[in-house]
Amino acid sequence: MAPRWHPERFAARLPYLRRRALLLDAVRAFFRARAYLEVETPYAVSAPGEEVHLRAFATERETPEGARERLYLHTSPEFAMKRLLVGGCGPIFQIARVWRNGEGSALHAPEFTMLEWYRPGASLSSLIEETASLLRAVLAPVVACRGIVTEISNYERITVAAAFSRYVGVDILAHGENAAALAAAAGERLRPGESAEDLFFRLLLGRIEPRLGRARPSFLTHWPAAQAALARRDPTDPRVAERFELFVCGIELANAFIELTDADEQRQRFLADRARRAALYGGATWEMDEDFLAALAHGMPPSGGVALGFDRLAMIAAGANDINDVLWL
User: Fold this and answer.
1) Global pTM?
2) How far apart are CA 329 and CA 324, in angstroms?
3) Whole-angstrom Cα distance, residue 288 to residue 270?
4) Running DSSP on this structure, what letter comes out for residue 191?
5) DSSP E strands: which ranges in 129-228?
6) What share of the chain is helix, strand, coil (3-state, %, to 5)?
7) What is 219-240 written as a DSSP string?
8) Where are the domains of the chain?
């Protein structure tokens, strides 16, 4: 097969890439019109994130004196951008290159572009409306991607609990941390060694996600506290976290939190994530990001944040079937 730069292969992708370039301009215009400041943060960091299942690329920095420091290519600019919120930067956005090792499919690339933005004082509802406004501003009223046609003008909101009730027939908040009870309620056989979290995601991926983001965008909200990640618990219902995922054309496009600002609770979540990662994958890991925890302890303003896969947005905008179609090389 000819290389990707070969004129014949490149010509087939050029219409998608031109649409990507226009999309980039439109995204920047959207956030600048809303008084967001565009920022840039380091890509090589001492701690790339604590998400259990993400694998980081490792590298090394050598000083002029010959000292060596282990670094990693970040999996998200989240920790750095939150430090800027502590510093008082106000609303910010970044279009960043990020790296996740071991990934590759029609929707995944090991190096890709993330659009991430944070707004002090945001509520979950205001983040949803802002994200929907972004879609309306940068996409056509009707988009088609991977055989699915979606109308952008309106959207649905559905909680994780309501989705499990509707599509799986179980009360996930009652059974979600008991693997055996959840399997029985869902009519599934528990697989050897399968945890409650594993079964949660098997049901989510198999029975719920294929129903989302088809005729219209879907915001899947209020995740069980066990899946809170970096989101705070809902003050009105501590069983769930203030988090949403967005689906368009059947594609998971964005993940958003009302951010956890309690440094002690964040440390405990990090410790739990590190223990689970070690149990699943073993091997050495990076030091805890004490600087980030110190920033939280100093005082991060109540904020909401969204991480959106820009390459997937470009696929939807251009009608491309494969993420490689919207990557320049």
Assistant:
1) 0.95
2) 8
3) 8
4) P
5) 142-145, 148-151, 156-159, 218-224
6) 40, 25, 35
7) EEEEEEGGG-TTBPEETTEEEE
8) 7-155+216-326
Residues near 103 by beta carbon (within 8 Å), at least 6 away in sequence: 109, 110
Full pLDDT tens readout for the chain, 329 residues: 889 999 999 999 999 999 999 999 999 999 999 999 999 999 999 999 888 888 999 999 999 999 999 999 999 999 999 999 999 999 999 999 999 999 999 999 999 999 999 999 999 999 999 999 999 999 999 999 999 999 999 999 999 999 999 999 999 999 878 999 999 999 999 999 999 999 999 999 999 999 999 999 999 999 999 888 889 999 999 999 999 999 999 999 999 999 999 999 999 999 999 998 888 888 668 999 999 999 999 999 999 999 999 999 999 999 999 999 999 99
Q: Which of 244, 251, 256, 18 minimizes the C-alpha distance to 150?
A: 251
- Asked if 261 and 255 touch (Cβ cutoff 8 Å), the reply is no
List, as own/partner pairs, every contact residues 105-108 make where C-beta atoms lie below 8 angstroms and the sequence separation is at least 24, other chains included: 105/323, 106/146, 106/321, 106/322, 106/323, 107/251, 107/312, 107/323, 108/323
Q: Specify which residues 150 forms β-bridges with.
A: 143
Contacts of 77 (CB under 8 A, 6+ apart): 41, 94, 96, 98, 114, 116
Q: At what angle do helices 290-299 and 78-87 cross, to 10 degrees?
A: 40
Distance of CA 78 to the CA centre of its chain: 10
The count of C-alpha atoms lying within 13 angstroms of the C-alpha of 17, restricted to the half-sphere facing its C-beta, is: 13
Rounded CA separation 224/233 (Å): 9
CATH top class, domain 7-155+216-326: alpha beta
Find out whether 258 and 232 touch, Cβ atoms under 8 Å.
yes
* Residue 26 buriedness (CB in 10 A; 0-12 / 13-18 / 19+): middle
